[in-house]
Amino acid sequence: MLANIFLHAVLDAWYERDVKPRMKGRTFLIRFADDFVIGCEREEDARRIMAVLPKRLARFGLTIHPTKTVLVSFRKPDSRKEADTGHGTFECLGLTHDWARSRRGYGVIKRQTSGKRLRRAQQALWPWCRSSRYTSLPEQYRQLCQKLRGHYQYDGIRGNYRRLDTLCKYAAKAWRYWRSRRSHQSAIPWEKFDRLHDRFPLPAPRIVHAI
Predict the structure, then answer these.
(1) Of 80, 132, 169, 183, which shows the fewest CB atoms inside 10 Å?
(2) How far apart are CA 140 and CA 59, in angstroms?
(3) How far apart, in Å, are the Cα atoms of 68 and each of 44, 53, 55, 185?
(4) Are 34 and 7 a contacting pair, CB within 8 Å?
């Protein structure tokens, strides 16, 4: 909330009032809290904004992130060219944005869970399954389903099914591993776990946002 209030004057209003009218091509600003993306049609406009942005924020005691703030050549792929300048990929709000081709051969923007966010979600599941292994099975199942559904609700966007499925399979692996280590006699082979999973199926990945 504080970021929205503060950056509205520092960034949003400044961009609309002073920056956008001076650009030679089309441009836009998308911001969520303190994360934002500025898109420019012309490279020279992007470099002008990149040069003045740190100075604007410095006036209010703010700085831009030295590694996350980058100038990206994000262009639609041209089938007539073997390569293009720039890596054409960037991360925002935990999602990696890249260009891909649709089934009909058109260039489309593909969004999927960033590798860092996926690893962080997996690393959070492993100790949780360990600390909850003595919880009753129905309660542990209920909480694990909540965690997966929460992840699907945010990252369940078109083109991201594989990353969602990776997390779901990892959750099943961590669940079986720590359920097998409650005692010396609680080992659960995969055949037994498959029967358990039939009774308590984890929620399958689902696409929630068609963007």
Answers:
(1) 80
(2) 50
(3) 20, 14, 17, 49
(4) yes
Q: What's this model's pTM, rounded to 2 decimal places?
A: 0.77
Question: pLDDT of the chain along its 211 residues, tens only?
Answer: 778 888 888 999 999 999 999 999 999 999 988 889 999 999 999 999 999 999 999 999 988 888 888 898 888 776 555 444 445 788 888 889 988 877 777 778 889 999 999 999 999 999 999 999 999 999 999 999 999 999 999 999 988 999 999 999 999 999 999 999 988 777 888 888 999 889 999 999 999 887 6
Token output for 47: 């470099």
Separation CA 144–CA 128 (nearest Å): 9
Residue 50 has which token pair? 């990149």
The residue type at 57: L
Rounded distance between C-alpha atoms, residue 211 and residue 208, angstroms:
9
Nearest to 74 by CA among 44, 97, 51, 103: 97
Q: Where are the alpha helices (DSSP H) in 107-160?
A: 115-131, 137-155
